[in-house]
Design brief:
single chain, mainly beta, Porin, eight-stranded antiparallel beta barrel, cell outer membrane, OMP/PagP_B-barrel, membrane
């Protein structure tokens, strides 16, 4: 049976992915949707997200048809650990909701190659304890760096390195790392 914390995480994630998009699509706030798959030490991740580009006036370092700007990312994820409490084969299932502001350096026409990085806030449905990695708080910072390419038909394919940690607010705090492939469609 799910714990209260897990139920709250599932409810918030479902609310995020159903109620918010309906309003945001009508209001024109959502610019893209994404699907990510990641892998780490004895843990896998799948994540869906919705993105909203920053105001077009928020641009820096513009030159040669490139600039620095960004977007807001709201996501819901599922982690599956395969060595819960250090026991190989013992599974741990965690829901994660997150909000991340992301800086992106790319072309003015939003096509071709880009680099990006972001630091956001995440809430886990339960404490992570997998393969001798432990997180002692449900709140975690999630930071990533990545590269990607946006095609003419609006698909954005990227690779990211993602790190979750509570910045040593409470120990233990071994952190969790993922290598992620991302597919995003721009509306």
């Amino acid at each position: 049976m799910f714990s209260l914390q897990k139920k709250i995480g599932i409810f918030l994630g479902a609310t995020l992915l159903t109620a918010s998009p309906a309003f945001a699509f009508d209001a024109g706030l959502i610019d893209s949707a994404s699907f990510d798959y990641g892998t780490g030490a004895k843990v896998r991740l799948v994540r869906v997200g919705l993105q909203s580009d920053w105001d077009p006036r928020w641009r820096w370092l513009a030159s040669n048809g490139r600039h620095l700007s960004g977007y807001w990312d709201v996501s819901a994820a599922y982690w599956r650990g395969t060595a819960h409490r250090g026991v190989r084969g013992d599974r741990q299932h965690i829901g994660v909701i997150g909000f991340t502001p992301v800086l992106r350096y790319g072309r003015e026409d939003k096509l071709g190659w880009y680099v990006e990085g972001g630091i956001g806030a995440n809430l886990l449905s339960e404490l992570y304890d997998n393969y001798d990695n432990k997180l002692s708080t449900a709140f975690q910072f999630g930071d990533h760096v990545g590269i990607g390419y946006i095609t003419q038909n609006k698909w954005d394919i990227g690779l990211k390195f993602q790190h979750y940690s509570n910045a040593s607010i409470k120990r233990p705090n071994s952190g969790v790392n993922f290598a992620i492939i991302s597919a995003r469609y721009n509306f």
